[in-house]
Amino acid sequence: MTQTSTLAILGGTGPQGTGLALRFAKAGVPVVIGGRDADKAREHAKELSQQLPDGSAEITGTDNATATEQAGELVILSVPYAAHNATLSEIKPLLSDKVLIDIVVPLAPKNPKAVEMPPEGSATEAAQALLGEDIAVVGALHNVSAVTLNKVDQAINCDVLVCGNQLEPKRKVMALISKLGVNCYNAGLAESARCVEAITPILIRLNISKEVPFSHAGITICPPAEH
Amino acid sequence: MTQTSTLAILGGTGPQGTGLALRFAKAGVPVVIGGRDADKAREHAKELSQQLPDGSAEITGTDNATATEQAGELVILSVPYAAHNATLSEIKPLLSDKVLIDIVVPLAPKNPKAVEMPPEGSATEAAQALLGEDIAVVGALHNVSAVTLNKVDQAINCDVLVCGNQLEPKRKVMALISKLGVNCYNAGLAESARCVEAITPILIRLNISKEVPFSHAGITICPPAEH
Question: Which intervals of the chain are annotated as region Disordered (chains A, B) (predicted)?
């Protein structure tokens, strides 16, 4: 992957994908947004492009399959969990030599304060099982709220935990996400996604509860006091 | 529970229990350390007492069952996971009207970078199942390293996620832990422990990996940038 390799964001018309597309384009990474409806994705990309400051990379839009083909190497999956497996099945034949970055959290239907994990243990593990071990799957970016992502003029002040069974793809994903100015940490194998994905509903619960003085909490890894 | 109600720490001769005993006593909470061996617990309590500054509350030691009986209301379970269920079975008849604070993480034997969750989903849920719904179980303090806990002159600069099926006991536990000067957050029902307990091996992995510039990481809940 070169610095300017195109990043695909499938489900890029949704709130998470939108914020990520804007931030990556601002950081100089060309983005192709994928959607179920190519026209809608193209239209969305055009709207986002108009919000970008001079010097940003391009945002284009097309259908999910074409976006996957246009990706240099990295493909972000950012769809609602209900569309997770169907989207992966559709693009699976196009993913050889690519890395699938799964940011999907299997929130319980009608209860965003809980996860309903698939039998594989987590969305990331379900993706790895569906795609087979020859395609690298990396779980990442689960715990950054869409609201935070879309406030593109503000720094993201939480950290990103990255997990997956292959180290090199994880390193590539951490290098990509670092371009957004956030700290990335290697959280281990794909099975760590059972924990990392489940942090999101805990944060959503805090945001809803009003027990905390903020509304879009994230997490950070903190050093002990002496550092 | 009054301010000066005695706190029991079962497994209080271990590294987590030791740090907690010192910190709570310093904060004015009388502590009774429980151990399998009453003499050893008494000896340990005596040693810890000598380290306490003037004005601290008392630390005493006895066997686990007697320590449970001496607790005003709150009983911390701080044993290795291998002793989790056996200890709970032993003290179950003594826990009516008390609150069991489960801080145990079911780390995989020989691999502290992974959890091996019990069939109930987590140690906290296993405790609740074993004790029955009439005894309140609250999961807490899983992610604070023993090393951090034992540096008693330094502030704990990570947050504590608290979970359990009953709100009132959770509030009591959050009030207790707040005496250590840390922020406590209600992370939801007992099933959230599947996530909260599993954060610990992720932190242990980071500490071991040398990828991070610190060796006893914790987590904090962070507000978005605008706050």
Answer: 40-61
